[in-house]
Design brief:
The protein has 185 residues and is mainly α. The protein folds into 2 domains: 110 residues, Rna Polymerase Sigma Factor, Chain: A (Orthogonal Bundle); 74 residues, Arc Repressor Mutant, subunit A, CATH 1.10.10. 79% of the residues lie in helices and 0% in strands. It has 9 helices and no strands. The longest helix is centred in the first third of the chain and has 23 residues.
């Protein structure tokens, strides 16, 4: 972690402690995609991952005045997400009690080769459906979704590249995702 990121994380922590909702929004927008990818890798369940991400941000806001010094929000949020997901998986009896450090290895080692192939085929099928659905979006919706989720650009970077205002980007992204969801169901 470089000094700029460390400094920014310190400022964000102070802003959270001062009840700045924009700091929480910034953290959510900055880390959501990384957290989602990590959560899917740990749980293989998009609903559980999305719910867990929402809950860790809810807890972050709820306990913002009690937070100790955070060196890296990315590491803190990923650790929180990992614990929450494995706690939920244990509750659901999906896995037996396992050390947090061993949980990833445990999940990966319990999958048979056939299960992995089936998941790869399902992933490929979903990719085809997603490509088809993306083609049905407006060109602007498609562009913004590709920039945000495939090229992992920030809203500021998208704004600079497209010349659109951030509010317009949020609205277009929301409408595009809403349309994708309806097309993929």
């Amino acid at each position: 972690m470089n000094n700029n990121e460390h400094y920014l994380d310190g400022l964000l922590l102070e802003a959270l402690r001062k009840d700045d909702e924009k700091a929480l929004g910034y953290l959510f927008n900055t880390y959501y995609n990384k957290l989602y990818r990590a959560g899917i890798k740990w749980s293989l369940d998009s609903d559980l991952t999305e719910e867990s991400i929402q809950l860790i941000f809810s807890d972050l806001w709820k306990y913002r005045h009690k937070l100790s010094q955070i060196q890296s929000f990315e590491a803190y949020l990923k650790g929180s997400l990992k614990k929450r997901i494995f706690k939920e998986l244990q509750k659901a009896d999906s896995i037996e009690k396992v050390n947090w450090e061993d949980a990833e290895t445990f999940i990966l080692s319990t999958q048979s080769y056939e299960e992995i192939l089936i998941k790869q085929e399902a992933d490929e099928s979903l990719k085809v459906r997603l490509r088809t659905a993306l083609e049905k979006l407006t060109p602007r919706q498609k562009e913004i979704i590709v920039l945000k989720y495939f090229e992992e650009m920030s809203f500021k970077e998208i704004s600079e590249k497209t010349g659109l205002q951030t509010d317009s980007i949020y609205k277009t992204l929301h409408e595009g995702i809403k349309k994708l969801r309806s097309l993929l169901q």
